[in-house]
Write a structure and sequence with these properties.
There is one protein chain. The protein is of the alpha/beta class and 419 residues long. The protein has 17 helices and 14 strands. Strands 3-4-2-5-6-1-7 form a 7-stranded parallel beta sheet, sandwiched between helices. A 7-stranded parallel beta sheet has the order 10-11-9-12-13-8-14, with helices on both faces. Strand 12, helix 13 and strand 13 form a beta-alpha-beta unit. The protein is globular.
Amino acid sequence: MSFDNLGLSAELLRAVQDLGYTEPTPIQTRGIPAVLEGRDLLAAAQTGTGKTAAFALPLLQRMSEAHPNPKGSRAPRALVLVPTRELAAQVGQAFQDFGRHLQQRTLLVFGGVSPRPQVDALRQGTDIIVATPGRLLDHANARAIDLTKIRYLVLDEADRMLDMGFIRDIRRVLAMLPKARQNMLFSATFSADIRSLASGLLHDPLTVEVAKRNAPAELVEHRVHMVSQGDKRAVLSHLLREASNPQTLVFTRTKHGANRLAEQLGRDGIVCAAIHGNKSQGARTRALADFKDYKVQVLVATDIAARGLDITELPQVVNYELPHVPEDYVHRIGRTGRAGSTGQALSLVSNEERDRLRDIERVLGHKINVLPLDRSAIKAMPDQPQAANQSQVRPAAQPRAAANGSARQSFGGGRGRRW
């Protein structure tokens, strides 16, 4: 199957070719023709399966077949709701990339930044809104946006939005939309809550399930080290020093814990940054950009980054603390093992977390290998105050770029691009 067989216009096929993509993923192969036919879509696809293109490409085509909004109109025709600012930015960029040879206008609407530029842009008119629910409602309540002309609605990562408590906001948004519209709901899992939401939203949808429920990335190697809570920082620092991976995404459960761990690793001489909900949008954007550019080796994150961060060929994810909800483990490790690349998921598990580990194993459907640690090497590490005195946080330097090249050789570099 190639993109030429999916019924896309010449302009969209040019964009796909410009971006270097040749082979559609299963969710695109099944979803794109259905959306082009005007059908509602209920899709379960894990992270990295190409779901953004599965709705962005056909939506751009359907909208290009109609006349664009006149300049000055505040009535967008397509609305994409997402759970986080990071995901909004990625989806918005996808619409820009795929629609580079079309005239459709896309606007991002999310919190954490001044609303004034968004209001000014809305007054100029747009075709597509990519938004988080809260800020969208702020604009709607201020009469800065007209949602009565929406003809296409996408709920992306709907399960995450429900987990984050957005269900009331979503229902408020739905009440503002016209009933005659095409709906698409994308979710990593088909939980009972998702099916309930879908039943009241979708009309005779095509159901596409390209991964079994809560399935982890198939190319991810899962490992566990049993570590007491008090030793976790020393163990993690040792493993990061010994590993050849130029990039590691580390998950903690709390914002305070993410900040504290990033500071401790920095004192150990590891270049790192933290990203979580209390960070400003500018700080989060800079941290993610530095991580992608290999200026930062370790990004410490809370679960707000479990989905919505698009990091190409990320070799390793570390669970510094296991999540409270076992399905969140699947979302976390979905950052690695993407688009044909292999990845590693390492969890540092204390005695207090054994029950959580068993819950995760039930979701995965198999046991995770528990590997021994070289305790002597870890005990030989300098303690934290000495590390702070003897080493400084390394500045971003050219050797990181060299590591970049070697990492792509080791972790699936050279494969054809897919989303």
